[in-house]
Design goal:
The structure is a single chain. This protein is about 0% helix and about 35% strand. The chain has about 170 residues and is mostly beta strands. The chain has a six-stranded parallel beta sheet, with no helix packed on it. A five-stranded parallel beta sheet has the order 2-6-10-14-18, with no helix packed on it. A five-stranded parallel beta sheet has the order 4-8-12-16-19, with no helix packed on it. The protein starts with a strand and ends with a strand.
């Protein structure tokens, strides 16, 4: 578990009172929090729903680099974490696709996205960017969240609250 929302001496946890912020760098190819299966977290361990990210303010980076950058939370292929009780805001993207999303979920992942406030980022260039949640080829459980799209002036299929690709996989949204 990775828990935020503690007071200074770490004796009391209350995310509503003690805001713990993870902010992305200003970089050309960065995401704020990247969750990988097998090679990323643990030594040869799979990332399951027991891996919990809870109680943070997570701000996406301002990225003008490659595709799939500037996302606040990027859940890579086959990772299945639980992301709950966070305030997640996408970064900005001015050059590439699939970027600046609050939550970006890759093929084969089965995450649980629970009770978060999720706001898409700022997209002023390419298509398919700036969403609250962008999911391609994944089967996410999305429950109890407040989700809104981002802002920007350019780009088709951009700035949606939730943007799902690959309808053959099940998404559970409540």
């Amino acid at each position: 578990k990775l828990l935020g929302g503690f007071n200074g001496p770490f004796t009391l946890r209350n995310p509503a009172t003690y805001n713990t912020v993870i902010q992305g760098p200003v970089s050309n190819n960065a995401n704020t929090v990247t969750i990988e299966d097998s090679n990323g977290i643990g030594v040869g361990e799979d990332v399951t729903n027991a891996m919990i990210l809870d109680g943070f303010g997570i701000l996406g980076s301002n990225s003008n680099g490659s595709s799939y950058s500037g996302n606040a939370v990027y859940i890579q292929a086959d990772a299945d974490p639980t992301v709950q009780n966070n305030n997640i805001t996408g970064g900005s993207n001015n050059t590439n696709t699939y970027s600046g999303n609050a939550v970006c979920i890759s093929t084969g992942a089965i995450p649980q996205i629970l009770n978060n406030t999720i706001t898409g980022g700022n997209n002023n260039s390419q298509s398919v960017s700036g969403h609250g949640i962008y999911s391609i080829g994944a089967s996410a459980i999305i429950t109890g969240n407040s989700i809104s799209g981002g802002v920007g002036n350019i780009g088709t299929d951009s700035k949606c609250g939730i943007y799902l690709i690959d309808e053959t996989l099940a998404h559970q949204i409540n």
